[in-house]
Amino acid sequence: MNNDHVKQSMLPPSASISRRRVLQLSGLGVAGAVVGPAVLAACGSDEVGVSTGKLDKVKAHWVYIGPPDDNGWTQAHDDGRKTVEAALGSRVETAFTPNIGFDASTNQLFQQLTDDGNDIIFANTEYSQLLSDVAAANPGTKYVECNGHNYTANTAAYYMAHERTAYLLGVAAGLLTPNGTMGYIGAFPSATFFNDVNPMLLGARSVNPKATMQSVLISSYFDPQNAAIAADALLSQGVEFLFGVMDEPTFLIKAEAAGVWTGYWNLDFRSAAPTKYVNNFNLDGFGPFYTSQVEAVLNGTWAPPAKPEPFLLDCPLGEWGDQVPQEVQDAVAEVDKQILSGDLHVYEGPLVDNTGVERLPAGEFLDEQDAYLMSYAVEGVSGI
Q1: Are 42 and 305 in contact (CB under 8 A)?
Q2: Owning domain of residue 101
Q3: 35 and 153 assigned to the same domain
Q4: Which of 92, 204, 235, 266 is disulfide-compatible with 174, CB 3.0–4.6 A?
Q5: What does the pLDDT average to over 173-193?
Q6: CA-to-CA distance for 76 and 88, rounded, in angstroms?
């Protein structure tokens, strides 16, 4: 990648709205109890060395925004925690606290988990100051926050770099549909939302320049009733591919019943749409990432990135649906090769937003760290 043409991040970290951070708008409370007694290029030479001393056993705790069996986001993280247990056995003790929202009791929870002697604490959403205040007062404990923007000697952030995956799904949708009309059910106007709808539309337009993206935001990642209403509205408008960032499969079931292609964010959920399922984001990278982090604590080598930026995990496509033609799969695989080789960039100028403002000049492109701060919809995306 030629960094001479990489545009610098558009917003400071404090201005970004992350995937799960915005759940604080829903007013969730702390409802859960504590349960239960490599691999990444990002974890290489760009880290700041921190001498912590080797440990015989690490005590690690996960704080979850939802339940571990939500068929979505939190389940993917809990699968990652289980991967750590399987990989490290008696050298690690893990536990988790589910259904944690955004109020003063969450700050107290992080302090209690610290006082309980946890060596490293993972949060599968951004808790911002509710976590960072505790981290600042406890430099001997490591805190790793998904979607986070807090970068200190004992804190790190991480997320899935999913814009490439969304682009590939867009290519598939553009090839599978006559008109390239796509629909998307989201929660909030976050970077996650923009890094889904934008690349998906850009991918579709690479094979069908007339493709469009209609979005509906329902202010929740888990609201089957409103997801059903949104799905019905989009399907009634004639969308030919329906996607969403929900933690339950209502929209998949609706798409299947309407004979419309569909896909899922968090897990392989083809069972909800056996004849119209296209693909999903593969979040299996959480397991290797968590394992590498705990191993680093064991070895006394844990460190955050040297730069104030997150660890970005690889997020490939999952398994293709049974009815997706082989020629579509092959075409998408070829595009993926071009992206991975650097011959093709997901975000490449000229890029205009949906208000007509040029956001990226010709000859420039955004890298994954820039995309982490994405804050606008490209031309062709409506509903936002």
Answers
A1: yes
A2: 31-161+284-314
A3: yes
A4: 204
A5: 97
A6: 19
Are 176 and 199 in the same domain?
Answer: yes
pLDDT exceeds 90 at position 4: no
C-alpha closest to that of 197 among 324, 384, 334, 15: 384
Residue 5 has a pLDDT of: 31
2: helix, coil or strand?
Answer: coil
Q: Residue 53 has what pLDDT?
A: 82
DSSP 326-362: HHHHHHHHHHHHHHHHTSS-SSBSSEEBTTS-EEE-T
pLDDT, tens only, 114-133: 999 999 999 999 999 999 99
Partners of 280 in the β-ladder: 264
172 with 332: CB under 8 angstroms? yes
Picking from 220, 173, 221, 179, the residue whose alpha carbon sits closest to that of residue 197 is: 173
Q: In this structure, are 221 and 272 located in the same domain?
A: yes
pLDDT score, position 52: 52
Taking the CB of residue 355, how many other CB atoms lie within 10 A of it?
9
Q: How far is CA 373 from the centre of its chain?
A: 13
Residue 21 burial by Cβ neighbours in a 10 Å radius (0-12, 13-18, 19+): buried
